[in-house]
Amino acid sequence: MGSMTKNTVVVGVDASVEALVAARYGLRQAQARGCELLLVHAYPIPPMNTPLPGDTFTCLQEAGQALLDNVVSQLDIPRTVPVATMLEQTAPVILLQRAAESAHMIVIGQHHSSWLERLMVGSVASPLCCKAACPVVIVPRRWQPGATDQQPVVVATDGEAAPEAALQLACEQATLLHTSVIALHAMPVGASPAEVTAHEQHIAKLVAGCTVARPQTPITVRTVHGDPAAAISEASRSASLVVLGTPHTRRIGSWSRSVARLVLKHAECPIAVVPRREQIKKVITHAAEGGELLPS
């Protein structure tokens, strides 16, 4: 049984191929960042009105632990990376949101489920990205270790999300990979010239600060016009990672209509969704007060 600290990369796993790919990605991140790797799995809570054999819970626990052990056995683990597992009887989203309170990063696989599957078992990526208190990385099934390391890290600055935390993570990842950062400045159709100019000036100031902090990591700003989600998805075809922020608006449905959510459906590389700093403080304070991290 593992513990969760800020020096931990947490990977949510199940029996899918996507989860194994995510575990391999998480392992590389843990190794590069000097972190522990914690693999977590949530097994289902049987309906209360369903008669169950006496050994049902034992069987569920054994099956869950066997799944975790199987994933560990398929990883090429360096001696320098501590690896632990955690098994809980709860919903996957609840377990991962709780893990995000004190983890350095959450990693999950990119599942392309049908609308019926989402209706029956729920989506993990969307509510997790919307509410998590640490960066969440969604890894596509086709990702392979080392295949895209030399490609740039793309950070999207689309005017919808606060760019500070996203740019910081992008520079950090690019430094680890010895590659460059592309700050993709994608403003939506209809943005006024004053809005575009103000946003460009803000990004230029942030980029200048990152350049001073990490002079070895080149940063290029590219401005694109049109649909931000389409531009970012296209950029993901030649990126090692795309970094996005969660929407800063608090309007109802802001996540469901967000650029980040649309990009998750079409990305060709791992996607990192970074929470706002005030979101991190809010979630941790809520948890400290005994609140439940339930998806909305």
Automatic annotation (TrEMBL):
InterPro entries: Rossmann-like_a/b/a_fold (IPR014729), Universal_stress_UspA (IPR006015), UspA (IPR006016). Pfam families: Usp (PF00582). Residues 8-140, 152-275 form the UspA domain. PANTHER family: STRESS RESPONSE PROTEIN NHAX (PTHR46268), UNIVERSAL STRESS PROTEIN UP12 (PTHR46268:SF6). Belongs to the universal stress protein A family. This is Universal stress protein family. It comes from uncultured Propionibacteriaceae bacterium.
